[in-house]
Every structure is written in C-alpha cells, then in structure tokens.
Design goal:
The structure is a single chain. The protein is elongated. It has 4 helices and no strands. Helix 2 runs parallel beside helix 4. The chain has one domain. The protein is an all-alpha fold. The model has no long low-confidence stretch (mean pLDDT 80). It starts with 13 loop residues before the first helix and ends with a helix.
C-alpha cells in the first residue's frame, strides 16, 4: 500500500484527510474484534459438536466432517486476523504520517507512569495474542482432523479418506490463494 504523503495534499484538505484516515483506522480495529467474536463463536460451537459426537460416531465420518469444518474455520480465522491486522496497521501508518498536522502525535509511545506489579499494565499486542490463539486453534483442529483421517483410513473407508485428502487440499488452497492483491 502506498504511503500517504500529507505534503502532496492541499493545506486546507489535510485535516479532512487525517480525519478520514482516523475513521478508517477505527473501522478496521472494530472489524478485527467483530470478526474474531464471530469466528470464535463458530469454532467454539464446532468444538461442542466434536465433543458431543466423539463417542457416538462409530464410523468416524461425522467426526471427520466436524474436524474438517473446524480446521477450515480456524484456518480462515487466523488468515482473517492477519488480514485485519494488515489493514488497520496500514491506516495507522497513514494517521502517523499526518498526525503532526493535527497538533501532535496520537500514536506516541507514552508509557504508563504507575507500575502496579503483576496485575499492572504491560505492553502486549492484543491482536498478536489473538493471532497466536487462532494459530493454536488451527493446530488443535489439524491434529483432531489428522486423527480422524488416519482412523478412517485404517478402517478402509476409502471415500471418507479421499474426502479427508480433499479437505487438506482445500485448506492448502485457502492458505495459498486467500491473499488479496
């Protein structure tokens, strides 16, 4: 994404452009959390479905279906998180490049002055922690999916095994082709 150069913008329009950039930054941050809540709800429901079906599914086909859905949903969630973070950081950079025209830095690194020890504030990236959690969900679903696929292949359920391979291929395709230009 090209850098926004406030020197190239007419002086009387700079404040409007900066306000626009701030609004888009806030929009992207809000959407990051809306997408995360939606994805986590979907994935949590899938975990519940997995737990409910685990002892009841003698063929393993339902478990394979559930783990496939969990894997693909988690993969989509972690990629959505990364895409959201990319866009809100892009807008954050635009705001940083124009914040001097508003009277000072909005995104300066001002540290809290009161240290409250263990329960006090700390510099952790909430979005990076969310991405790490979504990566953990991908790993968990991958291991559950792999277990289901191996179990079905050992039972000589050829069609279900092919479905598992197709789901694995779809996951790789989503990962490779899910990028925007």
């Amino acid at each position: 994404m090209p850098q926004l150069n406030f020197q190239d913008i007419a002086r009387d329009k700079r404040d409007d452009v900066l306000k626009y950039a701030i609004e888009f930054y806030k929009f992207e941050v809000e959407n990051f959390w809306k997408r995360t809540v939606f994805a986590w709800g979907l994935i949590a429901a899938t975990f519940i479905a997995y737990g409910t079906a685990y002892d009841k599914d003698k063929s393993g086909k339902i478990i394979l279906l559930i783990t496939s859905f969990g894997l693909l949903s988690s993969l989509a969630w972690t990629l959505i998180n990364r895409g959201s973070k990319y866009w809100y950081e892009a807008w954050e950079q635009k705001v940083k490049s124009g914040e001097a025209h508003l009277g000072g830095p909005l995104f300066s690194n001002v540290e809290p002055t009161i240290n409250k020890g263990w329960l006090g504030a700390a510099r952790f990236s909430v979005s990076k922690l969310t991405i790490a959690l979504s990566d953990l969900a991908v790993l968990a679903w991958f291991l559950l999916w792999l277990d289901a696929a191996v179990t079905i292949s050992l039972r000589s359920e050829f069609k279900a095994f092919l479905a598992a391979i197709a789901i694995g291929g779809l996951a790789l395709t989503i990962f490779r082709l899910g990028r925007s230009d």
